[in-house]
Write a structure and sequence with these properties.
- The chain is α/β, with parallel strands linked by helices.
- It has helices spanning about 20-25, 40-45, 65-80, 80-85, 95-105, 120-135, 150-155, 175-185, 210-225, 245-255, 285-300, 305-315, 325-350, 375-390, 420-440, 480-485, and strands at about 5, 15, 55, 115-120, 140-145, 160-165, 195, 225-230, 265-270, 280-285, 355-360, 365-370, 390, 395, 410.
- α3 crosses α12.
- The chain binds pyridoxal-5'-phosphate.
Length: about 500
């Protein structure tokens, strides 16, 4: 098999070399051709390098969870429920965990029937199971642009044809959605589902307005379309009034609190408690739920009873005033993240200024910044890592064709200290200014004309490296990078 090759900007992990892959080529299923590594996954490795300030991950700040509380809850599970915790559990999840889910959803004003819930191994598994259940190769999914970078490889793996609709400050424009649906209908195509992240969207940080939510639900009903509502961040709102979920709007419109037949809801404990428990859930119409259950049986039989029992014990705790203790913890996260968000917006103003624009999220974990169109953030990332020790998610990761979003980046403000946010943004800002300066001097300081748009690549198509497809000027290396100095480059 030969020696594994070390690759990647972070210099971690091993990837097989081309000749090693070639040996297995004939064995791989066709769908693997469309499989791409999630940019986020690659970035996870970076967060472990101590010299790197990573604004790249989708991480909440788990250091805020009191260690003694974690120890107490885990030892209670170990001491009181050993046999159950160490046993397999039901595929649909343990009743105690489902009760916690019903409580979390009620806190967001959404009533659900516990019988419509399936506990999953993270919200990510819901995306996978929904695709497994609904998508044949070539089937259409309508999603936002940009969309959750972790959904991109899943959609690719199931060989979906994804139509992405540009979001604005109010989320997905529904008139644009309707035009897309009309066009698809004229081609005899009907999406299997519409995928949306209505609250504090990952990666753009924008939130779908109430009128659009209402209209989306109406459109789904008029056209009998399923909606996958992905809502990890709804409880992490820092300003403004909470908005109803699509699930609850549709249930209300039917006059049936707690049941819709068109919305599949995705929730997770990752951002309000811990991604390490790897627990999420779906609430789905019963026939869909049945298929999700079958899909999950084939995937992992059940989600970990150990962490399900931990979550149940955690949600059972009451604060001194009798309020659920988990609500207090979420409140503390809101305060912390809200402050960090302000720090990031201030730092962007200070270090990016007029050379970029960015979204102003009212919750969640992310800001989406768009730089001068001559900068390709996919090219900028390795430079930022090597020269400046700072990481972000390049915008292309949020687009199926990997071509759009080239001058954008996703920045996480929640999992990083205030000091690191300031320093990280300062470093990126300096790197961007250097690049713009170099580009200016290379081109006689005349601004470059906007590059022509290239035709979009087929979704789920080529797995070619994206570099040659860059539709912007190649970035020169920073003159003062240690690598450049070592090589004696100017
Ligand atoms: C929009 C969205 N959906 C789903 C997930 C998956 O979350 P998990 O699998 O940790 O529950 C994430 C994680 O960042 C997300 O941002």
């Amino acid at each position: 098999m030969g020696k594994p090759t070390r690759t990647g900007p972070e210099g971690r992990g091993t990837r097989p070399a081309a000749h090693e892959l070639a040996r297995y080529e004939a064995l791989f299923a066709t769908r693997t051709k469309g499989m791409k590594s999630s940019a986020m996954r690659e970035m996870m490795a970076l967060t472990e390098r101590p010299d790197v300030i990573s604004l790249a991950g989708g991480l909440p700040d788990t250091s805020t969870f009191p260690p003694e509380r974690f120890a107490k809850l885990m030892s209670a599970v170990a001491a009181e429920s050993t046999a159950r915790a160490l046993q397999y559990g039901p595929t649909e999840g343990m009743r105690v965990t489902v009760d916690a889910i019903v409580e979390v959803m009620a806190a967001e004003g959404t009533l659900v029937d516990p019988e419509s819930v399936i506990v999953t191994t993270g919200g990510q598994q819901v995306i996978d199971l929904v695709c497994k259940t609904l998508i044949d190769p070539g089937d259409v999914i309508v999603a936002e642009a940009p969309t959750y970078p972790g959904a991109v490889p899943t959609f690719s793996a199931y060989q979906a044809d994804v139509e992405q609709i540009d979001v604005d400050e109010e989320g997905m424009p529904i008139d644009e959605l309707e035009r897309t649906l009309d066009r698809l209908a004229s081609e005899g195509r009907r999406p299997k589902f519409i995928y949306t992240i209505p609250n504090f969207q990952n990666p753009a940080g924008v939130t779908m307005s109430l009128p659009r939510r209402r209209r989306l639900v109406e459109v789904a009903r008029e056209r009998e379309l399923l909606v996958l509502e992905d809502n990890p961040y709804g409880l992490l709102r820092y300003e403004g009034e909470a908005l109803p979920t699509l699930y609850s709007l549709d249930a209300e419109s039917l006059g049936r609190a707690g049941a819709t037949d068109l919305v599949i809801y995705l929730g997770t404990f990752s951002k309000i408690l811990s991604p390490g428990v790897r627990l999420g859930w779906a609430v789905a119409p019963r026939p869909v739920l049945e298929k999700l259950n079958l899909g999950k049986q084939g995937a992992d039989l059940c989600s970990s009873p150990v962490t399900q029992m931990f979550v149940a014990a955690y949600f059972g705790e009451r604060a001194r005033d009798g309020r659920p203790a988990w609500e207090e913890y979420v409140e503390s996260l809101r305060e912390l993240y809200s402050h960090r968000k302000d720090v990031m917006l201030e730092s962007l103003q200070e270090h990016f200024g007029d050379s970029a624009r960015w979204t102003t999220p009212r919750g969640g974990l992310f800001v989406w910044a768009t730089l001068d169109e001559r900068i390709d953030t996919t090219d900028l990332l390795p430079l930022a890592l090597k020269s400046d020790g700072v990481a972000f998610v390049p915008g292309r990761a949020a687009y199926m064709d990997g071509r759009r979003g080239s001058s954008s980046m996703r920045l996480n403000f929640a999992g990083v200290s205030e000091q690191d946010i300031r320093e990280g943004i300062r470093r990126i800002g300096r790197g961007v200014r250097d690049q713009l300066g170099l580009l200016g001097s290379l081109t006689g300081s005349h601004p470059l004309p906007a590059p022509p748009q290239q035709a979009p690549q087929q979704a789920g198509g080529s797995d070619e490296p994206q570099q040659p497809l860059a539709d912007v000027v190649k970035l020169p290396r920073r003159e003062d990078s240690p690598q450049a100095r070592r090589r004696g480059e100017k």
